[in-house]
Amino acid sequence: MPRDVRLIIEKLIEAGYEAYAVGGCVRDSLIGREPHDWDITTSATPYEIKDIFKKTIDTGLKHGTVTVMMNHVGYEVTTFRIDGEYSDHRRPDSVTFTRELREDLLRRDFTINAMAYNDKTGVVDLYGGMDDLRDKVIRCVGNPDERFDEDALRIFRAVRFSAQLGYSIEAATADAIKRHVEELRMVSAERIETEFTKLITSDHPEKIEELYDYGITSVFLPEFDVLMRTEQETPYHIYDVGHHTIEVMKNVSPRKHMRYAALLHDIGKPAAKTTEVLDREVHGKYYHNVDHFKGHNVIGADMVPDIMKRLRMDNDTMKAVSRLVYFHDVGINGFSKKGMRRLLSKLGTENFEDLYELRIADMKGQSDFKLEERKQLIREFREYYEEIVKDRDALSIKDLKIDGTGLMNMGVPKGPEVGKILNALLEKVLENPSLNEKEELERLALEMINSGKREVHDVTI
Questions:
Q1: Residue 454: predicted pLDDT
Q2: pTM for the complete prediction?
Q3: In CA terms, which of 52, 65, 67, 236 is 20 to 30 Å from 322?
Q4: d(CA 210, CA 119)
């Protein structure tokens, strides 16, 4: 235990009370993980706690919690308590303080989180948490129906702990999850997002399939359920869209925006799906029909904001995911250096590595049809990027060797015309980087001014 945690516990014991580190910090210490937080539980009441320590914050007195400040760090100290009824399946209607550790541990969610420790007593394990750590099992404390009825988010937490720790869910606990899953609809989106993000950024993002099997995704992410039911008959794929998505999630780094981008990269496929009659053999397999998903990246990028707002996701993550979903399939069948310049102009060079990582993961979740050819395309994709960065090709208006002031000095009136000409010049430079010289840009701009034409092209990658 950290020195300050030990000191708080010792002071409480010296004052005649019981005190222990409790919950996740004990669990993590026992399995060799570094605890993120240290929670302390005690038989002392909140006001008794406040009498012992000089610096405290009234975090939640009616729920028994006082934050004790030690060396500018806060530690939550909570009185042993018994929770009342949970009429909303989220929080207890009332809390009763108790002097019995046993009753406090009984109200906790899972056995592995219901252990306490201090240096004098050692580990206090009244409900089989040590056995379940040994057997790598997630099991509710006491009656699982009661635990889930008290707080429906525990349904989600069971699968999340299973993902983070690589444990299985005990049978009675799993059965109770299925019985109580609809109660998750009463849980706030913010709490669900917190648990879901922890799950998909864990070492086992494939546990999302358990969320689907239990019916949990139907509550907060029904679009994923549709993916799990969407077949893709095509030589390039060996999985349905849902299982392909899971494979991609497993193959990107556990950064929040990357796991969400992998989760949602094909979210537009069901809406984009069309089927063509083929009736021939391809790559050793006979296909009566073959599926196409043209434009699924555009459809998916349009869906991302609604999904992520529903989860109360932060704007930076939402924008990053939308961007990656939109561009993940652009130029997938071949690229030119000119196309790469146009892509980077829209994407931003700072986002290339994320897109490259997603593309590699996407390929790992597919079949081996034309695999060497696709690997070569990926290599060229990266080579073009590296050449463009090395050559410092202009990719945005700020990279042009002429600016708005220069155009106005040439007679262009201040206003939207300046922006139109700069965009037109950028289009020409993306096509031919050698044009990015001051004299050449002035010549092109003068032609536009004199002719009255404003050449603004669609960006085609």
A1: 45
A2: 0.90
A3: 236
A4: 38
